[in-house]
């Protein structure tokens, strides 16, 4: 609601280490306040609050292995939440992101199985297909000027239908065949779905990828020209165009980044579960978007960070698993989830308001 | 501005061509194991000739959500009966009860010769089933609605009593010496799934609790089940309500270091392999293929010979049939064709 008006839609560039300001008012604004005004700080505090709460409520969570489970759940959401957040900062969002994950997994699984090919072949083709879906979204959007809600809703429905119909047509069933005994599977599994030992705790490789992608996205957003373009097209498309930002290029590539994320998560699902059911993925797009919004990205664009959604996804994973770890009555599961998320977002909002006041 | 992006897309063109060429080269990389080639020996589904009775049309309207392996098997059974009986099968499905009612209305409008319908939410279908009766179209029920089919004036019913199936599973757990079980529900609010867990609770002498997971997101299913196993180390049995979730639960057991055993409702081809290997203890099979097959065949028999399956009084039960290590070999062959 008033969130959009309250937050500063300013293009956030890294504070240049220039000469010290002499203006009294700016000196009054302490470092702490300036830190608090960052988009990710509210969600960071929210995540800490949720974390501490569950550490107290759920004793088993204090075990390292349990944390690994929470991080795993967070990472599968978080990897997608990153490009979704960048896209949102760029002023658009993508409803097809959830089923696009399954499309990618289905493509790779079916292609390798049906043609009895090395699974890497399927992985590569799936990447091309996922990027193409993203490019298509972006291209239609820019060509027609339709809102992204409409364009990606259409893609969402098309992909949902195609996932089912093509799978059925090709395999005769609605799930893909098991590819775990095929050439290349073990390598691909090592890359996308393995786990490793850290002091006796099994950590999923997706957690590492998640953090690597987050660091990469942060760097792109804050240190590159492309990052500035993202903020610019999200802030105001017209003024961005007027100052020479390649709007079409930026938006199409942002959608393609979402395609890349969908591919990555899709490959994780394929290589971790060996088969994919074609009806999966529906509804996940809202969770990705939620993680980005909780992470401080504005639905209206032009404001946000890449690290915020990391905490957003963590918070989601934390609440999701924390309820189970706490052993609460599962009938209330969804209600708990909603209340905790709203609470966390309110902390987020409060911190941002307090920090940007004056 | 547009010009620069056009220039860019032209610059992309060689890259795309390169990727395509690379893809074609890679096509040489065929897999030496697994894949379709390895499975190709298995032949097509069952076929039992064809009736020369007059052509009739049957509508099968279910509450299937898209892309669910279970319903695919029901439909295959229905199609097999339709092919054999010289029946034209019109299949439609919608998980939303109101939409399902509209689909039944659609079948009535088409003046089909028979309707087979699932009663996941019986009350929502009441009025439209009355209309079918008035139009003189015979209606049979299948899969869900065991408690309601007679009240709604249906002619026959083919399916499994979910709570009887649950009770059977509960007894089996007692035999296996289970003490503490968790029932994993992959769709919150689904009546049939809840009835299964309630059935288990009725006969199971140990303690049991339900766990809800997000069935459309496998990684989340996996981590939620893992979390539950870590939270309570005493859990010795996991019960899943669908085959794909059983496969995921096995991974969760591995990961959590728990010693819990996995048992499940429903089958598919991956699952039979897991039972053979001993990863999964047993499956309670309600024989979805049989449900679809018998529903269509029942309508054909009524039309051509005036027969009532179950005498029009009792449901025809298709489950619970247990599949475990002792009999999985016989079932696996059919499961690999996607019909069990």
Descriptive report:
Chain A: Keywords: Cell inner membrane, Cell membrane, Membrane, Sugar transport, Transmembrane, Transmembrane helix, Transport. The complex is a heterodimer of chains A (about 350) and B (about 350). Helices cover about 70% and strands about 0% of the residues of chain A. By secondary structure, chain A is an all-alpha fold. Chain A has a single domain, classed as ABC transporter involved in vitamin B12 uptake, BtuC (Orthogonal Bundle). The model of chain A is unreliable at about 1-15 (pLDDT under 50). Residues about 1-5 of chain B have low confidence and may be disordered. The chains are: A mainly alpha (about 350), B alpha/beta (about 350).
Keywords:
heterodimer; A: 358 residues; mainly alpha; ABC transporter involved in vitamin B12 uptake, BtuC; two-stranded antiparallel sheet; 71% helix; 2% strand; globular; disordered N terminus; B: 340 residues; alpha/beta; Rossmann fold; 2 domains; six-stranded parallel β-sheet; six-stranded mixed β-sheet; 18% strand; SBP_2_dom (chain B); signal (chain B); Sugar ABC transporter substrate-binding protein (chain B); Peripla_BP_I (chain B); Bact_Solute-Bind_Prot2 (chain B)
Largest sheet, spatial ordering of strands of chain A: 1-2
Q: What's the structural domain tally of chain A?
A: 1
- Ranges of chain B where pLDDT stays below 50 over 5 or more residues in a row are 1-5
Name the helicity range of chain B. 40-55%
Instruction: Estimate the mean pLDDT confidence of chain B.
Output: 86
Strand content of chain A: under 5%
Uncertain residue segments of chain A: 1-16
Give me the count of strands of chain A.
Answer: 2
CATH class label of the largest domain in chain B: Alpha Beta
> What order do the helices and strands of chain B follow?
HHEHEHEHEEHEHEHEHEHEHEEH
- Beta content of chain B comes to 15-25%
Mind describing the biggest β-sheet of chain B?
6 strands, parallel
Q: What's the name of the CATH homologous superfamily of the largest domain in chain B?
A: Response regulator
Function (chain A): Part of the binding-protein-dependent transport system for D-xylose. Probably responsible for the translocation of the substrate across the membrane.
Transmembrane segments (chain A): 35-58, 70-88, 95-113, 119-141, 148-166, 203-222, 243-266, 286-303, 310-326, 332-351
Subcellular location (chain A): Cell membrane
Membrane topology (chain A): Multi-pass membrane protein
């Amino acid at each position: 609601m008033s969130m959009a008006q309250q937050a500063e839609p300013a293009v956030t560039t890294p504070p240049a280490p220039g000469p010290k300001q002499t203006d009294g008012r700016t000196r009054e604004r302490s470092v702490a306040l300036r830190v608090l005004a960052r988009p990710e700080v509210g969600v960071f505090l929210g995540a800490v609050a949720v974390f501490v709460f569950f550490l107290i409520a759920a004793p088993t969570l204090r075990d390292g292995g349990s944390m690994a489970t929470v991080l795993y759940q967070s990472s599968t959401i978080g990897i997608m939440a990153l490009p979704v957040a960048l896209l949102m900062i760029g002023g658009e969002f993508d409803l097809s992101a959830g089923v696009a994950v399954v499309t990618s997994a289905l493509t790779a699984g079916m292609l390798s199985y049906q043609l009895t090919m090395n699974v890497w072949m399927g992985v590569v083709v799936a990447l091309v297909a996922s990027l193409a879906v993203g490019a298509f979204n972006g291209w239609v959007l820019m060509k027609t000027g339709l809102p992204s809600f409409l364009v990606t809703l259409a893609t969402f429905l098309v992909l949902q239908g195609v996932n089912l119909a093509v799978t059925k047509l090709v395999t005769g069933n609605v799930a893909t065949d098991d590819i775990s005994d095929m050439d290349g599977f073990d390598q691909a599994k090592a890359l996308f779905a393995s786990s490793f030992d850290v002091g006796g705790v099994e950590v999923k490789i997706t957690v590492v990828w998640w953090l690597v992608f987050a660091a990469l996205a942060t760097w792109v957003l804050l240190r590159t020209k492309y990052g500035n373009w993202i903020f610019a097209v999200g802030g105001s498309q017209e003024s961005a165009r007027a100052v020479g930002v390649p709007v079409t290029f930026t938006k199409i590539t942002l959608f393609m980044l979402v395609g890349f994320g969908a591919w990555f998560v899709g490959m994780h699902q394929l290589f971790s579960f060996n088969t994919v059911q074609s009806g999966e993925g529906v509804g996940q797009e809202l969770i990705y978007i939620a993680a980005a919004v909780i992470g401080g990205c504005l639905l209206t664009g032009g404001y946000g960070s890449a690290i915020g959604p990391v905490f957003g996804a963590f918070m989601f994973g934390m609440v999701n698993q924390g309820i189970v770890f706490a052993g609460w009555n599962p009938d209330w599961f969804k209600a708990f989830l909603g209340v905790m998320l709203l609470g966390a977002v309110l902390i987020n909002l409060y911190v941002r308001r307090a920090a940007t006041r004056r | 501005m547009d010009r620069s992006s056009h220039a860019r897309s032209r610059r992309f063109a060689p890259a795309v061509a390169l990727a395509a060429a690379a893809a074609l080269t890679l096509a040489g990389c065929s897999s030496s194991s697994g894949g379709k080639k390895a499975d190709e020996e298995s032949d097509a589904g069952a076929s039992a000739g064809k009736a020369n009775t007059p052509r009739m049309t049957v509508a099968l309207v279910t509450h299937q959500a898209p892309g669910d392996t279970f319903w695919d098997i029901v439909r295959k059974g229905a199609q097999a009966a339709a092919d054999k009986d010289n029946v034209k099968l019109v299949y439609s499905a919608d998980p939303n009860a109101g939409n399902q009612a509209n689909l039944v209305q659609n079948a009535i409008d088409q003046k089909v010769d028979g309707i087979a319908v699932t009663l996941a939410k019986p009350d929502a279908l009441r009025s439209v089933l009355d209309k079918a009766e008035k139009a003189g179209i015979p209606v049979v029920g299948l899969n869900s609605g065991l408690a309601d089919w007679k009240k709604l004036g249906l002619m026959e019913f083919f399916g499994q009593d979910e709570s009887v199936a649950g009770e059977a599973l509960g007894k089996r757990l007692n035999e296996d010496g289970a003490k503490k079980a968790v029932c994993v529900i992959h769709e919150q609010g689904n009546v049939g799934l809840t009835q299964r867990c309630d059935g288990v609770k009725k006969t199971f002498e140990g303690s049991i609790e339900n766990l809800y997971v997000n069935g459309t997101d496998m990684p989340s299913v996996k981590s939620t089940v893992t979390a539950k196993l870590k939270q309570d180390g005493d859990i010795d049995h996991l019960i899943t309500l669908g085959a794909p979730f059983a496969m995921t639960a096995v991974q969760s057991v591995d990961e959590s270091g728990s010693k819990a055993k996995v048992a499940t409702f429903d089958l598919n081809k991956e699952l039979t392999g897991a039972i053979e290997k001993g990863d999964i203890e047993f499956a309670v099979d309600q024989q979805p293929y049989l449900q679809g097959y018998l529903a269509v065949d029942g309508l054909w028999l009524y039309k051509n010979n005036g027969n009532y399956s179950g005498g029009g009084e009792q449901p025809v039960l298709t489950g619970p049939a247990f599949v475990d290590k002792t009999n999985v070999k016989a079932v696996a062959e059919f499961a690999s064709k996607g019909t069990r």
